[in-house]
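INFO batch 0412 | record 1 of 1 | parsing
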Amino acid sequence: MLGNFITGKTSLFVVIGLLLSGAHYYSYQQGWSKGYREGVSQQNREYDKRLADCQEQQKKVFEQEKLVLTEKLADYQQKIQTAHKMEMHYLQQLKTLESHQQQLKRQLHDVTSQFIDEMGQWHALPSHFTNGFVQQVNAAFGVSTDSDTDTPSAQSTSRTVSTVKTRLRL
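INFO prediction complete | emitting tokens
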């Protein structure tokens, strides 16, 4: 009986040990599963939170970049408008200068370096006089020519020279 008793006690200890080991394993598995699930859900919450923060920061950065680009675009548009205004001013000045150049070219044809005296002889002048000056001198001396109101043209050099010579009677 003693053999049965030891075997019965040992079996009882083995069964209790197995039950305790099984209970321990079951509680370990339950704890591990619960911990794993909670860890995953906490990790997902942290991930979602960080993702939302990151997206919010990206949105702020995009808004700032958008403002900077909008300011640069406005500055660029203003520079373009200024450039167009300056170009128009330049073209207007160019037209003015071209018309002034044409007037000077017309006046250049009226410059003379000789005059005819009362005897009808040609004399060289020490400096060049313009048509307007000669007309004023002629008017001061009371000499009137038919071509005072004519404007010289660049059609022919001989006509210009001859009309200038006829207007320069002192």
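INFO post-check: The first helix runs from residue 2 to 109.
INFO record closed
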